[in-house]
Amino acid sequence: MIIEHFTHGCIPLFLEFAAAEGWISSEWELEFLLETFPEGCFSCRMGNRPVAFVTSIKYDKSGWIGNLVVAERMRGRGIGSSLMEKSMNALFRAGAETVWLTASGQGKPIYERLGFVEIDAVRRWKGNGTGGVNGNLRYISLEMAVELDALGWGETRKSLIEVTHGRGEMFGTEGAFLVLQGCGGFMQAGPWGCAVESDAALLLDAALARLERGLEVVLDVPERNGAAGSLLASRGFRVAGRTSLMYFGAEPLYCPDKIYALGSMGSMG
After folding, report:
1. Closest CA to 205 of 126, 124, 136
2. Helix axes 158-167, 142-153, angle to 10 degrees
3. At 118, is the secondary structure helix, strand, or coil?
4. 109 belongs to a structural domain
C-alpha cells in the first residue's frame, strides 16, 4: 500500500469511483481542490492502480474533508483511516483549527470513533425552475458575498465564493446572495447566504425565474435553518436525502440560520 498525492491524471478514475457511490462530482471541482490545497489530497495505490482517494481544502480557520472513497473490494483494511489521517494532518499543519465533513448514516459511526461531533444535518432539496422574467436585483460584489458567507460559517471562505461566483451566476441584495451553478444536467443553488431573512424568497424566486421551466434545481441546506426549509417547501421543493454535518477540533462559530445552501454537493462546504 503506497499513499501518495492525488494527481490530475487520477481525476477520471476518481469520478468513476464517485459515480459508483452515487455522488455528484464534477471535473472542475477536483481540478479546483487539487490546485487550491494539493498537500491535503491523497490517493492509495496497490500496484499500478489507485484504489482509494481523499480530498480536502483549507479556508481561514477550518478545512473540509470532502471525498473519501475506497474501492469496495479494498474496504476493511484501514485504507480509509490512513487517508483520513494524512488529510487531517495536512489541514492542521496548514493552520486549521476545525475540520468539517458530511457523513452518510453508514459513515457517521466511523467518524464518531475518530472524534468527530455532529453539529447539524444537511438536507438535499430538489425542485424546478419556473421560467419567467427575472426581477431587478442590484449587483453584489464578491467582497460583500464573502462577508455574508462568513456570517454563517464564522470565517472567510474567499476561495470557494470566488470559484463559484466565477463559474455561475450570482444574485444579490444588500442582505443576501445566491449563486446558481451548472452541474451536469441540472442546476445547483449555492452558496446561498442571508443576513436578512426576508431577502431569501426574493433571491430564490429571481433565480428560479431565470431558469427554464422544469429544469431540475438541487441544493444542500442545513436542517437547523427552518426558515430555508419552509421557503423551499412553499416553492414545491422536496427533500431527497440527508447527511450528518460533523466537525473535529475547535467548536466553530456556526450560525445555520444565515446559511441557506452550501456551496458544493458535500465536498467543500
Report:
1. 136
2. 130
3. strand
4. no
Expressed as residue numbers, the domain containing 7 is 2-96
Domain with residue 180: its CATH number is 3.40.630.90
Domain count, the chain: 2
Q: How many helices (H) and strands (E) does the chain have?
A: 8, 14
Q: Are 39 and 56 in contact (CB under 8 A)?
A: no
- The series of mean pLDDT values per 10 residues for the chain, 269 residues long, is 90 88 84 96 89 95 91 82 94 98 90 95 97 70 96 97 92 94 91 96 92 95 98 98 97 98 90
The mean of the pLDDT values for the chain is 92
> Does the pTM exceed 0.90?
yes
- If asked whether residues 144 and 237 sit together in one domain, one would say yes
C-beta separation of 151 from 114 below 8 A: no
Q: CA 257 from chain center: how many Å?
A: 17
Burial 101-113 (b: 16+ CB within 10 A, else e): bbbeeebbeebee
The pLDDT score that the predictor gives to residue 138 is 65
Same domain, 165 and 208: yes
Identify the burial level of 20 via C-beta atoms within 10 angstroms of its C-beta, where 0-12 means exposed, 13-18 middle and 19 or more buried. Answer: exposed
Grid coordinates representing 46 are 496497490
Residue length of the chain: 269
52 within 8 A of 23, measured Cβ to Cβ: no
What is the pLDDT at residue 26?
Answer: 84
63 and 193 share a domain? no
Q: What is the pLDDT of residues 173-219, one digit of tens each?
A: 989 999 999 987 899 999 999 999 999 999 999 999 989 999 999 99
Residues 141 and 231 in one domain: yes
